[in-house]
Structures are given as C-alpha cells and as structure tokens.
Amino acid sequence: MNAATTAQYTVAGATAPDTRVFTGAEKAAALLLTMGKPPAARMLKHFDPLELRQITRAAANLGAVSNAAIEALVEEFTDSFSAGVDLMGTAGEAEQLLTGALPPDQVADILSDVLGSSNSGLWEKLANLPEATFVAYLEKEHPQVTTFVLSKLASSYVAKVVTLLRRDLRNDILRRMMAPESASDEALRIVEGVLQAELLNASVSVSSGDNKSRIADIVNKLDQAEADDVMRTLEEASPKDAAALRKMLFSFDDLLRLSARARATLFDKVPTDTIVMALRGTDASFRDAVLSSMASRARRLVEGELNNGAAPPQREVAKARRAIADLVLKLAQQNEIEISTADSSDTE
Description:
With about 350 residues, the chain is mainly alpha-helical.
C-alpha cells in the first residue's frame, strides 16, 4: 500500500471530527472489515503469517471509523466503491475477520499473539538472525532494552548472543535479567515494530523463579571461563541471587556432586562413545569415580577405548561433556535424578 492516508473520522462519543493518519496495516484492516467476510476471506489467503498478525492487531485496535474516513480510504484504491456504514474495529471484529478464512489453529495462534501482545512470529524470525548481526544491533541499544529483547528469545539463542557481547555489557544484561522490569502492551508493540523495521525489514512480567531458571539455562550453555566471569559479577552485585543461581548450574566437572545412584542412572542413558570422548583428559580420580558408576561391561568398553586411540580435538571433547551436562539437567527437571548442592556429600 501507499504512504499513510489522512482522513476525517469520528470516534464514538466524540463531538467533533479529527484527523487520522492510517498506517498500511490499518488501511488494510479497515478495508477488509468493510468488504465483509467472504471477499475478505479470499484476500486474507494472500498475506503471509507476519502480515496477518499486523493486520489483525490493527483491526483489534482500530476503534470507531466513520463512513467519511472509509470513503477517503476507498477513493485511494477504487472509484467504484459504494458508500457504506461506519465501522468499529475491536478484538471481536478481528476474530470474526479471520474465522472461516483461515484454519482454526492458525486463527487461535494469531489471536493469541495479537491479543496477548506477543508476536511469536517476529521473535522466531529474530532467533534465525546471525548472532553477530543481532549483537551489533543490541550494543547500540540501552541495556534495559537489550534485556527486554533477550528475555523474549530462546535460551539457546541468547547464550550464543551473550558470548559475543562485550564482557561488561554481557554481565550487566544477565544481572538485569534476574529481575526484569515489566513492559506495557504499548511498549511491547513499539519494540516489536522497531525490531521488524530495523532488523527484519533491511508487558511481560516473569516470576523470580522463572528468571533464575532462564539465567541458569543461559549460563549453563556458556564456556566455563565465561560462566565463572558472569557468576563473579553477579556475586558482587547480588550475592543472594548468585547463591540461588549457583545451585541451578551444572557442568561436566560437577559430576561428582551426583550421588552414585544418580550417576548410574545418568550413564545408563549416555552412549559409550560419548562417555569415552568426555573422559579424555580427565584426572585419574575423576575418571575412576565416573567408571565406578557404570555397569561392568560398559566400564570395560570405556576403559579399553581410553587406553587406546589418539587425543581427539578439544572441541569434540567439550561437545561430549556439554551433552552429558545437558542430560543431567534434563533428568533433574524430569525428577529422575537429584543434583546435590556444591557442599553436599555423597552419602550413597
């Protein structure tokens, strides 16, 4: 559509007309609501998912639009459009606009995003951007904005992004994410609009427990040196939060924090070649503790492999160790094993 159209409109209850500047999405929403369901349904099938969300949001927030305003819009596109009645854009009208034109699950998904002020399509697309591109953009923003944006993205992607941030900014952002400020729906829409325009086109309050789980998930995916650096910074700023967070962290080196029973459960689920790779380069006492938790046949296989073969690339060793640590966290979340605190002793 062309640039925004200026038209006269009257809001229900107002005493005088005002001048309104329609955005492209608002123009599309107004015209689709005006033309009725059957033709609107045919038109909607030509929009992509992101455009559908933008139009639905515009329809839900359109408010009262006078016949004069509609006529001004219509004249931009056609001379043969007949005069109609005033319309009111509401959430209900937006739902009616989509119902029947799209599959029910897609309608539910779009309305959930729009009325819940969470444009998942946008955030999914952002998570597909190269990390370096996203970092270059975020480093120009205020840390609070960066914190808010990262809080909307998957932990695995955030972990990749924060490793590329400047050390001071990275630590500040993760500290802020421990207790993020809530954002209004209007602020969220503004942020989404800017991200769409500046990145893709060229108010959410989380509980303290959820915040800690999210930060733990991110820190658990960092290299050990980076994770230690983040924790030192957090301990200086908020010792209480750092202590709570540390109980949720787990690396391959923490395997001895698990009870013998938990280690047996774990290694029963880990492929032998992954165990062999992860144990490369470990000291004898650590290796013996791990091997003692394994069934005798599996233990002999691992010992045989460890006594033979050349040293593998360090990145392969790190990958295997990360896989085992991730499995520990997964099993703990499923309550199949329990992770003891750092100062707990193995009593089994």
